[in-house]
Amino acid sequence: MMRVYLPLLFVLLCGMSLLTGARQISGYQLITLSDDAWLTLTASRLPRLITVSLTGVGLAICGVILQHIVRNKFVEPATSGGLDAAKLGILVSLSLMPTAGAGSRMLAALLFCFAANVVFIAIVRRIKFTNTVLVPVIGLMYGGVLSALAEFYAYRHNILQSMQGWLLGDFSKIVQGHYEIIYLILPVVVLAYVYAHRFTVLGMGEDMATSLGVNYLVTSAIGLMLVAITVSVTVIAVGAIPFVGLVVPNLVALYYGDNLARTLPAVALSGATLLLVCDIAGRLLIYPFEVPIGLTSACVGGVLFLILIVRRAQ
Fold first, then answer.
1. Residues 181, 232: contact at Cβ < 8 Å?
2. I need a surface site. Which of 10, 151, 153, 161 has the fewest CB within 10 A?
3. Which whole number is the average pLDDT over 86-107?
4. Does the pLDDT value for residue 1 go beyond 60?
5. ∠68-117-57 over CA atoms, to 5°?
């Protein structure tokens, strides 16, 4: 049943996203493609729809990859320090190379995010947790330290106020010519599907993966690199968006299980759908103004996160 309704819901939300905004576009204008409607559609609405959808797909997929590597359902970039490390990497690149473009900032965010994920996994592997809920708690503490370092670094370089503005998830500035970096998520999705079976085996543990012929360290490194690319691209393009990679894989697993070769399309489509819901809600709550999607996704994702924790504790 979900396989039928989810694509239909996604298509419906795509249509709503194209029609929703400060400038009204009727369905008739969209069909006839008047000059004003065409300009608004191609310059703003369509790039925004593509960016929202690909961001949701990328964050959901990198969340499920991390969960299989760490073997914990409550892990994603926002609860493992990766998102905060990407922020720190961008700030360092801005201070060292003020004229650097998006590519240089993305590379710095990628390196910091990858290193932070490696450290987090090393911490989790060294400490034997009896309660799975403690793993994201450690991750949040670890991320809090990295976030504090980022804010202190921004304070020392007098960019604290601007940092708080442009690192908050926001799609309102997405226009033609300023979103194309988001297309880097497409090869990440392809590689994630190619390695889906190996990531599933990683979720069984290192010993089982090795016995089944999977190189645990190499496959984990590939997964962490895909996560780092996705996080760095989304932070550069739209800012920090938490909880999508946490709640979507868990909700999909309730219906389809944990075999990524079978569930990855549903995870990707569910991530795009959830982020479209948050984006449309943010545009309608105080219309014609917008609530940044970083706030709406945090509210929705935070509630779902608490529900998942309570459900697991019972």
1. no
2. 161
3. 81
4. no
5. 55
Question: Do 240 and 83 form a contact (C-beta atoms < 8 A)?
Answer: yes
pTM score of the predicted model: 0.86
- State the number of CA atoms in the 13 A half-sphere of 192 facing the CB: 34
Task: Write out pLDDT tens, residues 288-314.
Answer: 788 888 888 888 887 887 877 777 655
- Which structure tokens are listed for 120? 């987090």
Report the 3 state secondary structure along the chain: CHHHHHHHHHHHHHHHHHHCCCCCCCHHHHHHCCHHHHHHHHHHHHHHHHHHHHHHHHHHHHHHHHHHHHCCCCCCHHHCCHHHHHHHHHHHHHHHCCCCCHHHHHHHHHHHHHHHHHHHHHHHHHCCCCCCCHHHHHHHHHHHHHHHHHHHHHHHCCCHHHHHHHCECCCCCCCCCCCHHHHHHHHHHHHHHHCHHHHHHHCCCHHHHHHCCCCHHHHHHHHHHHHHHHHHHHHHHCCECCCHHHHHHHHHHHHHCCCHHHHHHHHHHHHHHHHHHHHHHHHHHCCCCCCCHHHHHHHHHHHHHHHHHHHHHC
pLDDT at 129 over 70: no
What pLDDT does residue 276 have?
A: 92
| CATH architecture of the domain with residue range 51-313 | Orthogonal Bundle (1.10)
Token match 């980022």: residue? Answer: 150
Core vs surface per residue 253-273: b (16+ CB within 10 A) or e: beebebebeebbbbbbbbbbb
